[in-house]
Amino acid sequence: MEVLRALTTVLPVPTVIGSFARDYWALCVADVNRVAVTLDVDVTILVDTLQEYRRVLTALGAGPRDSVVKVLGFEVDVIPYGGLETDGIVETTPGVTLDVTGMREAVAGAERVVVDDLVVCVPQLADMIGLKVIAWGYRQELTDKDARDIGVLFDVTHRGPFGDELWQDEAAGVRCDYDPVLMGPFRAGRSLGRSWDPTSRLRLTETLSRNAADLAARISRFDGSVAGLRMEQIDALRSGVQVP
User: Fold this and answer.
1) Buried b / exposed e across 200-234, counting CB within 10 Å, b at 16+?
2) pLDDT value at position 36?
3) Coil, strand, or helix at residue 150?
């Protein structure tokens, strides 16, 4: 919490993504304890230019070419979105690029959460899944951590209060034969289909249609789940996004 407190000197109400947001939904809301231990914090900021982005990083103590800053010994990854994007891609430092498709929509729908005496914004569960899918599609050759997190977030969609909500959703039940393990991802996809703009939705569905079997296999390697079931969840998520 002290890291977040330090960030508020520059970012009064930070929007947290990555592991903090994953753990909020998994541990605090749905009581899913299967999460990885991470020692970094990811936040996102709206900026129009690279110069504006650098000014924020400098205020946080970053060097002239850094996109990751050290705060109280922890790494804080500051991810920009906004006017400096080109087709959803941002270049944080020369040669280092990220796909931030969906970030604008995720921030717009984020939930304000009180942590001790601090207020932070956390993207909704569906938006976190969408952002993780986009990240996986862009950097799957470099890291498997997005696949790991997608598996955890899929589990959250049918646990705790999200699990209780499933049985009030007849449309999702009919589409998924009332299988809660599939209804959860379907409902998340449907939410994304309604809240993300057409360009973001297109990139999301293209990513889900490309190498879905590989994503399912990577998730199963992390948690020991059945790859075929993970594939069904990916299909359910994509079907939800494409609901008219």
Assistant:
1) bbebbbebbeeebeebbebbbebeebebebbbbbb
2) 67
3) helix
Dihedral angle, C-alpha 48, 91, 80, 208, nearest 10 °: 120
Running DSSP on this structure, what letter comes out for residue 21?
H
Beta pairing class for 40-47 and 74-82: parallel
Nearest CA-CA partner of 118 in 9, 226, 214? 9
- The pLDDT tens digits for 30-47 are 998 766 667 688 999 999
Residues 6+ apart with CB under 8 A from 224: none
Q: What's the pTM?
A: 0.95
96 DSSP β-pair partners:
93
Structure tokens at 218: 């990577």
Q: Which amino acid is at 210?
A: R
Beta bridge partners of 114: 119
pLDDT at site 238? 98
C-alpha 14/C-alpha 223 separation (Å) is: 31
- Which tens digits make up the pLDDT trace of 89-100? 999 988 899 999
Query: Please, are residues 107 and 46 in contact by the beta-carbon 8 Å criterion?
Result: yes
- pLDDT tens-digit map of 42-101: 999 999 999 999 999 999 988 877 778 888 888 899 999 999 999 999 999 888 999 999
H or E stretch at 78: strand 74-82
Q: Is 193 exposed, middle or buried (0-12, 13-18, 19+ CB in 10 A)?
A: buried
Average pLDDT (15-41) is 86
